[in-house]
Structures are given as C-alpha cells and as structure tokens.
Amino acid sequence: MIKRKIVIETGLGEARDKIIRSMDNSIYQVSRVTRLIDDLLEISRIENGKQTYYFEKTDISKLITQICESYSDQIAAGGIQFSVKLPESFVIECDSFKIEQVISNLLTNALKYGAGSPIDISLIEETGHARVSIKDGGPGIPEDLQSKVFERFERVTPNKTVSGLGLGLYISKQIVVAHKGTIQVKSKEGVGSEFIVLIPKTQA
Ligand code: ADP
After folding, report:
1. Are strands 56-59 and 91-94 parallel, antiparallel or unpaired?
2. pTM for the whole structure
3. Per-residue pLDDT tens for 3-30?
4. What separation in Å is there between the alpha carbon of 16 and the centre of ligand 1?
5. In the β-sheet with 192-200, what is the strand arrangement from edge to edge?
6. Partners of 185 in beta bridges
C-alpha cells in the first residue's frame, strides 16, 4: 500500500516538473516575442516621429534597483556574479519608462552576450549628469565594429545561438539622445564590454 503511494507521488512529481519546465519555456518564448514586437513598434514610432516623452522627476537609483530585482531569478539561475553600486538616491528629470527600457536592454545584453561572466552596474554623478555603467567580462566587441552596434539591425558578434534583431541599442541611443544624453561602448576583445550612459540631471 505504502509502496504504491510512493510510486504515484514520484510519477506526479515527474509530470509536475515537466509541466513547470514547459511553462518556463513558454513564458520565455512569449517574453522574447513580446520584446521583438515592442522593438519593432518602437522603431516604427521613431521613424514616424511619433515617440512621446513624459519627463518627470525620477529616482534613477531606485529605478535601477527595481530593474535589477526583476532580473534576480535569471541572474541567480545563471550563477552570475553580480555587483551593483548605487547611491541611496539620485533624482533626475527623465522619462522613467524609456530610461528603464535603456537600462533593461543593456542588462539583457550583458546577460545574453556576457557568457556567464561577472556583471557590474554602477551609478555616479558626473558633471551634472547621471552616469550609468553596465560592464561585463564577456567576449567583447572588435574595435572596428563598436560604432556599428548603435545602428539599426546591426548584430556584430557571430553568436547565432543568441536571439535578437539588432534593434535594442539603436532604440536605446534614440532614447538617450532625446534626453540630451550620450551612450557609448568601451570594449576589448576577450576582456569584456562596458556601456556608459550619461543623462543630464535636468532637461531645462
Ligand atoms: P540584439 O541584441 O537584438 O542583437 P542590440 O542592438 O541590443 O541587438 O545589440 C547589437 C549587437 O551588439 C548585438 O547583436 C551584439 O552583436 C552586440 N552586443 C551588444 N551588447 C553586447 C555585449 N555586452 N557584449 C558583446 N556584444 C554585444
């Protein structure tokens, strides 16, 4: 009797694990497709001059904390060493939804292309700007291709296993420029990449 019960429980456990795995996979696929559709819609808005910005006082330090928290499961599952250095509070004038899009995109890329290497995020004040840095220790980007990554549909690393359309950095650059800021990459092959975003504290 007891033996039979154990057999049934084990069978159910396996079925449950299979269902959870398949649901995780479905959620991942849906989020990938959602991101691709969002990127294409954003491109269409940019090209038609229909992007609208809602500037408001935003604590970018808290925003980055929330973004990092939303990635915590993925970071833990990948066993990635993750360091975040932020001041307690740093208020700037920005479109928080759009700046979240930029930082999420840079963090997604560090996870996608960083090959499991440590990721460091920092926020400091620099000459009247919020300076956000997202750094990985992945394969890096060859010097002659670094300026290309901000162009539309440009994918420069020959990693076919990583999905993407080559739009995230183009969109990020449009958003940062609309904030009168800058985005740049510093990268060395075999060492890693650092993306640096500067956003002015005020939009006046
Ligand atoms: P996608 O990730 O969809 O290809 P992006 O515009 O976000 O589009 O990135 C453009 C290209 O820049 C990527 O295809 C990749 O080749 C390169 N890239 C971006 N971030 C990194 C990174 N952290 N390390 C190495 N290569 C990167």
Report:
1. antiparallel
2. 0.85
3. 455 555 556 788 888 888 888 888 878 8
4. 36
5. 82-85, 119-126, 129-136, 192-200, 182-188
6. 195
Please check whether residue 187 is in contact with residue 146, taking contact to mean a CB–CB distance below 8 angstroms.
yes
Residues with CB under 6 A from ligand 1: 105, 109-110, 113-114, 136, 138, 141, 149, 154-157, 164-170, 193
User: Cβ distance 87 to 64 under 8 Å?
Assistant: no
Ligand 1, atom 12, lies closest to the CA of 149
Q: What is the pLDDT of residue 163?
A: 75
Cβ neighbour number for residue 196 with a 10 Å cutoff: 17
The residue written with tokens 């890096």 in the block is 140
Distance 15 CA to ligand 1 centre (A): 37
In 3-state terms the chain splits into helix, strand, coil percentages (rounded to 5) of 50, 20, 30
List, for residues 86-122, the tens digit of each pLDDT value. 999 999 999 999 999 999 999 999 999 999 999 999 9
Q: How far does residue 155's CA lie from ligand 1's centre (Å)?
A: 6
Burial 113-135 (b: 16+ CB within 10 A, else e): bbeebebbbbbeeeeebbbbbbb
Position in ligand 1 atom list of the atom nearest CA 154:
10
Alpha-carbon distance of 27 to 141, in angstroms, equals: 30
Angstrom CA distances, 121 to 14, 23, 26, 38, 96, stand at: 39, 31, 29, 25, 18
For residue 79, CA distances in Å to 10, 19, 111, 115 come to 28, 24, 11, 11
